[in-house]
Amino acid sequence: MRNLFDIDPWKIIESKFDPSKQKQAESIFSIGNGSFGQRANFEENYSGASLQGSYIGGVYYPDKTRVGWWKNGYPEYFAKVLNSTNWIGIDISIDGEHLDLNQQQIKHFHRELDMQNGLLKRSARVVFSNGKELEIESIRFCSMAREEIGAIAYSVTPLNFSGNVKFTPYLDGKVSNHDANYDEFFWVEDSRKVDLQKGILCTRTKKTDFCVATAMRFSFWREQELLTIHPNVAQRDFYVENNFEHYLEKGIRFTLKKYVAITSTINHSEFELVAKAIKRVREAYTTGFDALRSEHEAAWQAIWDSADISIEGDVASQQGIRFNIFHLYQTYTGKNAKLNIGPKGFTGEKYGGATYWDTEAYCLPFYLKTTDPKVARQLLVYRYNHLGRAIENAEKLGFKDGAALYPMVTMNGEECHNEWEITFEEIHRNGAISFGIYNYVRHTRDTDYLETYGLPVLAGIARFWAQRFNWSEAKKAYVMLGVTGPNEYENNVNNNWYTNYIARWCIAYCLEVNSKVSKGLVEKLAPREIEQFQHIVDNVYFPQIDGTNIYLQQDGFMDKEQLSASDIPVAERPINKHWSWDRILRSIFIKQADVLQGLYLFEDHFTEEVIRENFDFYEPKTVHESSLSPCVHVILAAKIKRLDKALELYLRTSRLDLDDYNHEADEGLHITSMAGTWMSVVEGLAGVRVYENGLAINPQIPKPWKSYAFQIRYQNQPLALAIDQQKVTITNLGSALVSCQLAGSQIDIEAGAMHEAAFEKFELS
Amino acid sequence: MRNLFDIDPWKIIESKFDPSKQKQAESIFSIGNGSFGQRANFEENYSGASLQGSYIGGVYYPDKTRVGWWKNGYPEYFAKVLNSTNWIGIDISIDGEHLDLNQQQIKHFHRELDMQNGLLKRSARVVFSNGKELEIESIRFCSMAREEIGAIAYSVTPLNFSGNVKFTPYLDGKVSNHDANYDEFFWVEDSRKVDLQKGILCTRTKKTDFCVATAMRFSFWREQELLTIHPNVAQRDFYVENNFEHYLEKGIRFTLKKYVAITSTINHSEFELVAKAIKRVREAYTTGFDALRSEHEAAWQAIWDSADISIEGDVASQQGIRFNIFHLYQTYTGKNAKLNIGPKGFTGEKYGGATYWDTEAYCLPFYLKTTDPKVARQLLVYRYNHLGRAIENAEKLGFKDGAALYPMVTMNGEECHNEWEITFEEIHRNGAISFGIYNYVRHTRDTDYLETYGLPVLAGIARFWAQRFNWSEAKKAYVMLGVTGPNEYENNVNNNWYTNYIARWCIAYCLEVNSKVSKGLVEKLAPREIEQFQHIVDNVYFPQIDGTNIYLQQDGFMDKEQLSASDIPVAERPINKHWSWDRILRSIFIKQADVLQGLYLFEDHFTEEVIRENFDFYEPKTVHESSLSPCVHVILAAKIKRLDKALELYLRTSRLDLDDYNHEADEGLHITSMAGTWMSVVEGLAGVRVYENGLAINPQIPKPWKSYAFQIRYQNQPLALAIDQQKVTITNLGSALVSCQLAGSQIDIEAGAMHEAAFEKFELS
After folding, report:
1. With an 8 Å Cβ cutoff, is B579 touching chain A?
2. CATH number at residue B738
3. Is B72 on the interface with A (CB under 8 A)?
4. What is the pLDDT of residues A538-555, one digit of tens each?
5. CA–CA distances in Å: residue B33 to residues B24, B116, B148, B456
């Protein structure tokens, strides 16, 4: 795979402008702050291929469902992440000719995503048709310190002339979703106002009535000197601007500093929305660009302090892992229980919705180990808040008595997705939500959570599974018919091992929690339910290959033609782009191996021998055409000491978007799978596990790496791990003693103490 | 079930106008002639709920596919049956007030479908707001003798006044499909011309460039006297009219006779289209209404002579069966190899497409036994002509080497349907096409057909099956994974017994035909293929319940909760309107029992005991929510002497649309299942079978019936059967001796001879 952009440990660098990469670059260089985000579109006019995108967390539109053949139970709409007011716009023109990197000759170009500091920087030298040369430079960020503030410093230096240049900072609310089922426009204008050096635009979504106020202010500088200017103002529907011409002297740098505040009814009442935006932007303006930037950079520094993974000896790996961590924190910071982690974050609009099972299965472990447990808890509370909707969702499908089915895709708890084989059948997602609670508790020991929020969710989910299993007289066991596992290259299968396994586990865990929580706080299971649940737990059917330890993905799996992914001609990969759906379904090939997913989640239930046997059976059949697939294989490969395989797949997952393996980075990034990449290192290579009975660490290091280091949180104590080719160093940065199993040996590390162990001293267990 | 309209052996009668039934009536009283057809819309203006519909065989529009989630292999478009120029329009007004049965007081109303003569008749007495009373009467037909001609005699009698009435006969091409994916308009206007007492409108479909010319002429009569009138002419886009006011004397009947010719590029070149329409309409005008009507009635008489089923003792049954036969012949007459039998015929536009597996599985046996074998042969040639497209269709799904997959829905051989579980998986349709050839040959002994047309189709289909089976190492047999059987309440199942059975049979039959046809005429199978085919035929896996004769619908069927349709609360029927798709899929309930479908098609492969055992297993689980379902059960129930069950289901199928069991007659009729109704009587009650080794007849008669009688064709000899409670009478109306098994005894009937057998003399075998 060729790298799309230049390699650097802390930066993504594009050193030559290539319009054919612009949409990919717009995704990859996106910036955001967990509250809103912006693709790396140019501030000035750009006439080339581009996906202009500005997205605000939680603001969505219920786009009317488009299906060929309606089926009972389909949702009426699909919640679309909304492309909203373009706040970055600064148009530049000379003698009526607009600056446009798709038109003018470009003598130099440099775009850089500074991940350490959360900055998008760009510089370019451009020759206008009349020969006038401009140097432009811009620095942009979405403030991590002030979640409603964005800021841009946009500098222009005339290189071979002195003369007038026109500046037009504007706000444009006339933006459409690329992803709209019937090409509808989703916004109405509520109000707009424009005045000298400021303007505000307030737009409202149709149907959902979300209001978004975007306020701008700007200042204009000659080098370090603030200038007084007298701009014109202009406005039209969905649009406000200032514009002014200024005489620029050759070689002198003039800078327009644009401050924007974006407030929405996600966080404010409709009545105070505009006032808040005006207040926030005034504060930002008063604070000034440099001070805003400093506090923003400090906020990023605090994130990196606990979340960074440093890798020495392989810059591509280093860049890859930081790219993933960076985008995760840009997408979700845990500040707001109404938000979640959309599959494309703020980098694109494809797929819609904000919440998939990816959150619990992939993102939660990341936040649990890299930051304050409150962040992970927010993610759990989000689902607790949607419990009523999950119960309604199950009722629509014919379930009753409080059974809860969480949606495949949602914005507000309601199901959006509308393919029967996914919407109605890919129900394993429910299991991930119970598992998330369990995982949270084993990391944090916050059992209080179970009392108030945990048990109702666990019970709703367990009730769903209890109704979804049915007794098979033929098998004298509980079976589960008609499901789609995480491997979406199979639909409507019976007894998907993963789904049966996690479903049974959910019921068992619910029984366990129910027996432990004190009476009174929440409604507990009825005795009749307890009995029924226990009967199911004791009698679930699991398909397996006779005489082996291999769990069968589903009934009938062995009837398929037994091939390996290596049998597929290279020209036919990925198969989802080359084969008919029919052929994919019938083939043995696996998008994402769900038996292995189960062995990963419940690793402590299985011996290493069982894991190895299943890995050797499923990994050759897996084509990894889900971005969520490789990381699980990295972790299991590392577990069974296949370090070369682990590294190979690690590189694929960590640079999936950076090197655009799947040819779709133009549409946005695979945000949730980025958490899987992080797991690949921490759980895979470093072998960090939080089991119910404690922390275990079984580190390894790939040969090409000199060393790698990161921190984890365990029971709210930060631990720093550093692994090089010779040794492992664990430092307890917390305030309490931490015990763990290091390569099978119990060790205790006092607060502030460091434990060092040489590799030669221990055998990996 | 309450009857929607009045009962009569030869007529459907509506004796009181009920606007809430208008759309149902428009479907049920539809008329057509195999070439074009027209819903029973009123000629005059009608402002109530109505589905205006005029359809021309073979003229379609490729409507852009609408899907939520695209899958590789989906077709780009869905061919829509096109609603085309409204040719019946005759507007009537008095003093500016339009005649409109939705507005004026109606003193009397009578609408009648005269099935014997193929006439739609209507009379009404209407009071205008000024108190003026009009009697109107209309008679309309689509000529069975001239396939491009429609005619209307529209009479008006002023009952309580003399005065001016305005007549406006018109053609209106501005018609839209109700069933359009994106509300597009499908037509452009090519040309129009209007002159005294005539007009022509030529419209063209977008994309497909079908041209349709509709020409009208009319005359105006005072009782039997032709009047000279001086109409005005008017036109606008897509519209031409004449209009004139005439002074009508009280009590005198004035009649406007409107003649219409409809020509299309299905049958004519674009250059002669208009001239042909003008010529045809001139001929019709010259022939005159009464003579046109006589030749039309004679053509219907000829159809009834051989295709009628008369039932004495149960008028509802009698009306039901004639209604079915009537609509079948209105839809398809076999005159044109480009046409086929759409699921709604010319009575509505839902589902689109013209050709489903219904044609071979249901309609072909009807035409084989009721008319000249040329008609059935046309249907086979239609598929032969589409073989190239079927091969392309299979290639799109990844098949090769001449494998052919006929489409689920088509107009021109290309697949239209776009649900993966149907389009890619409901492949049993391919089997019906081979079976149709086999069935044709055993009825007609026309083995020549195999030489030229048969083998290439059989080979393409056999190649498909050979590739679609795969060897299961686990089962040491050929299995077929991921199919949908005729029971569409299961999707993506493995080893659907019906599909496996018909697929193996197709390969075996292809081998048999291949070994028999002479060398040279068509390309025969390669030796390697023969060997491979034989290996498959010898080693197909069939699921079965151990220790029984019950063939399992599919792998895993016994894991379902074992319930009966009687366990479903009445309020939840039909389940497809009340249950989520998910719940339907997981349930045991069967839309249409496909094991029984297989036992029906291949009845001579199984003992009666096997059929009984399977019927008793599947019938209680079948909810008959496909219109194609009950007839098969009637036939099998009769076979195993469950005559009460047979009669119960016969009544349901024969009056499905007449009594609107499924609450969807407003959208059009279930044309193809009507052939199943015919089969219910002939193959079910009368026990007529054409096996490979000859004709067998095992008649029974339900207790409520006095007698029933019909004709069949067998080896091109017409036989008349009459069955009463005492005896069976078989008359050989042909010119050659016919041998058959009557209730197990071999009998020979000379040409012209009659054979009578008393029921008491024979035991039904």
Report:
1. yes
2. 2.60.420.10
3. yes
4. 999 999 999 999 999 999
5. 20, 14, 9, 32
